[in-house]
Amino acid sequence: MRSRRADQLYAAAHDAGVFFSADSGATWVPASTGLTDLRVRALAVSSSVVFAGTEGGGFFVSSDHGANWEPRSNGLTDLRIQAIAPSAVAVFAGTAAGGAFRTTDQGVTWTANSSGLVATPVWSLAARSGAVFAGTAGAGPCRSIDGGRTWTVANQGLAGEELHVNTIAAIDGRLYLGTLSPGGVFVSLDNGDSWTPAGLGLEGQLVNVFATSGYVFAGTEDAGIFRSDDHGATWTPSNTGLTHTSVHALTASGGTVLAGTSGGGVFRSADGGASWTPIGNGLPGSDVRGLAEMQGVLLAGTGGNGVFRSIDQGASWQPVRNGITDFDVHTLVVDGANVYVATDGGVFRTRDLGASWSLFSAGLPSAIVTSLAAGDADLFAATPGLGVWRRAR
Question: 81 with 54: CB under 8 angstroms?
């Protein structure tokens, strides 16, 4: 972690506290006096103040380069700090199971910043019928009916590993849930009030993403794509022509389905998933994590190489990264005339099909954004350690 001065560095060592370097890392000295828990899991610097989050001792502050630390955890209901994100007006802390907290006085007092969102990180988001759903790691899906201001747990029918949500999607009046339980796909017909198993044929598979084009498709981590003709009751493999079977992105338009893979780029099916054709020419690295189609233009978000665009149905791709400052993309979302991209450096928006992008992270702490969902009036962003954030579109 670098301070405002380029030659000053801070490092957290596993179970050994904090170290400080005043010469760009040439030499290091211990800087842990006052830290009652040396298992430091998060560090952040704001102006001349250093913040440290520990595995069980809470939050600490130092104003003398780590020479001395002061505990400041008043109001934190979970002392296992996983992430720290300073902003211009506040400091945010994400905890292991207590959600996100906010302080405006450098940790003297803390207030909950994710009311009712009982577990973070949040890995996926979906919006439908005036409600927003957050897939958490440990509490299952949580639901908000007031634009994300408050949340309630909506996990009836789920238990154990089924409470670790990998993906959630709203499709054709139903909610689909992919969990860390092998083959753990569930469907809700009552807006998340209850969940029933829907993974027959998906045994042993980890589902990353859902999409629909007459059928429902599920992209898995190891076994490619599966198709359901009966709203998720049963699934069959749909992999003919698919040479890479780690699928992280799916999108459908009309009768065409596009699949983004890890290592193989983009594949297209024009026959309901019966066969797939590669269309990844010009995609370096080919780790595709997000796909969007708009006005005949295809956009692909990649891990480490930013966003690419195709104007010829995938025959060729060109980079469109003007304005994007972080190229590690997690997902793409289309909303009207806008496309939003979630990255390790926040959210970016384009209004001209990717020709130019602008940062869309005002009010969002400096944090990784793992998922996006467009609600009735707001855009929702999920973070791995700081809960869910909302901004008017």
Answer: yes
pTM: 0.77
CATH fold of 9-112: Lipocalin (2.40.128)
Choose among 280, 336, 349: nearest CA to 313: 280
Burial state string for 351-371 with b = 16 or more CB within 10 A and e = fewer than 16: eebbeebeebbeebbebbbbb
**Alpha-carbon span 6 to 2, nearest angstrom:** 7
Tokens of 189: 């017909």
φ/ψ of residue 163, rounded to 5:
-85, -5
**For every one of its 393 residues, what pLDDT tens digit does the chain have, with 9 covering 90 and above?**
444 455 678 888 778 999 998 887 889 999 999 999 999 988 888 878 999 999 999 999 999 888 899 999 998 888 988 778 787 778 888 787 777 788 889 899 998 777 777 666 788 889 887 888 988 888 899 998 887 778 899 999 998 888 889 899 998 889 999 998 877 899 999 999 999 999 889 877 889 888 887 789 999 998 999 999 998 989 999 999 999 999 999 988 777 899 999 988 999 999 999 999 999 777 876 789 999 888 889 999 999 999 999 999 888 999 999 999 999 999 999 988 899 999 988 999 999 999 999 999 877 776 689 899 988 888 988 887 777 888 887
Alpha-carbon distance 104 to 361, whole Å? 19
| Angstrom distance (rounded) from CA 125 to CA 43 | 27
* CB count in 10 Å sphere of residue 75: 15
Which CATH fold topology does 122-392 show? Methylamine Dehydrogenase; Chain H (2.130.10)
State the CB neighbour count (10 A cutoff) for residue 110: 22
